[in-house]
Amino acid sequence: MLSRMSVQDGSTLVKLRKQVRKRCAGGYKRYNGLLGLLKRRRHEEEYEGEAVEVVTKAPMEYLEHSDSFCDGGTLVCSSRSSTYGSTLTLLEDECAETSDVKLEVVEEVDVKVVVREFHQAQANELGRERHLHYYQLPFPWRENRFIIHGYRFYDSHYKSLLSIVNWYGWHNETANIWTHLGGALYVLWLAVYDFPRTSVWESEQVPMVAKCIVYVFLAAALKCMLASVFGHTFNGTCCLALRSKFACVDYSGITMLITASILTTEFVTMYNYPWSLRFYLAVSTVLGIFGVIMNWSPKFDRPEARPLRIKFFILLAAMGGLSFMQLGLLGGWKYASWLMAPVTHKSLVWYLLGVAFYGSFVPERFRTDIVVDKRIPTEQELSTSLEVVTRHKHVHFRPEPTAGARTDLWSLWWVDYVGCSHSWWHLFVVLGVVGHYHAIIDMFANRWGI
Ligand SMILES: [Zn+2]
């Protein structure tokens, strides 16, 4: 836990004590304790206590130290550091000598908040002028340590919107936006032009409900692509809370797409078994709805909830697998495999390939134009240690990325702008969607013998 104090023009230290007592009863104790502690510990080398953060509007350049930082008028130093005592001594002296300065407990904050907000003010300022590199981003914005250049940090959604057409220069989401924008247009074309001309649509043997389910799938695919375009366009914002919301929009789209893919598969395999069909459709739909809610819940957004998220997708996929097994047992394995073959050949293979790129950071992990950090601070370190923004500030917030050995085409410098793993993931999702659409058409044609 840190204490945040501020020095402002206005009154003397004595006056301040009274004001603090009056204004913030909660902070008063801490403030008094802090001063007492300062007096006692000023010259002691070791202090095993709480860290102290000091916010100051007075000129405090002299407080810069290797294990402290000044960030937009905020000074943070660890109580374990020698700066701790001297910093507060200087503050006290300043308050005592200058009658127009007051010292005030503003609020209590924790290490996690300080680390999370570190460098935000500078990033805001830089973001108005240009795109940032990885080491200029505050920690919560850092998601892929292999992507170095071209980060947007815009202060308006209008700028994000214009970034679809690279109004402020090519950035590292351009390819991600356009892969799914192209995908969305293609899905729209499938829905309005291609499907009404297929033999499945024209055949009277295929029930109307089956035709409708193709549209349910195409609608989910379109929603997935548009949600992704929306998410990747507006995540260029400098507002962290909104940025996480845009990520939720993106995840929800993918969850709905997967649910719709499973539903269509279950529909074909279980069509002859109405009660089983209802059961599978109902359970998968409920799971899908649960998945979307889960995406929006901050409780499930945390890294600790990752195993639960993975279990959820396995369960959803298992429903599709289960319907296949039931068909195998009831209708024969040969028939079941023959009916399901288009799904494995045309859609599953693309989805899996996409996931492989998504999870492996290929190809950007092989870039050699920049020396990429071997490891990044863990969630645990980011929420418990100030060292990432003090002692190791020069590593995590270096002015320029460290240049690597090569700069030619094979150094993969271009992954920041085109062809990163996420763009490949997008491309394979599009191929998976188109493949699944054709797989449904094939399965329906096989199922109803047209
Ligand atoms: Zn994406």
From TrEMBL:
Localization per record: Membrane
Record-level Gene Ontology MF annotations: metal ion binding; signaling receptor activity
Protein name stated in the entry: Uncharacterized protein
Name of the gene: TDEL0E04320
Protein keywords: Membrane, Metal-binding, Transmembrane, Transmembrane helix, Zinc
Chain sites annotated for binding Zn(2+): 232
InterPro entries: AdipoR/HlyIII-related
Membrane topology: Multi-pass membrane protein
GO cellular component terms listed in the entry, alphabetical order: membrane
Record-annotated membrane-spanning stretches: 175-193, 213-234, 246-265, 277-296, 308-328, 348-366
GO BP annotations, alphabetical order: intracellular zinc ion homeostasis
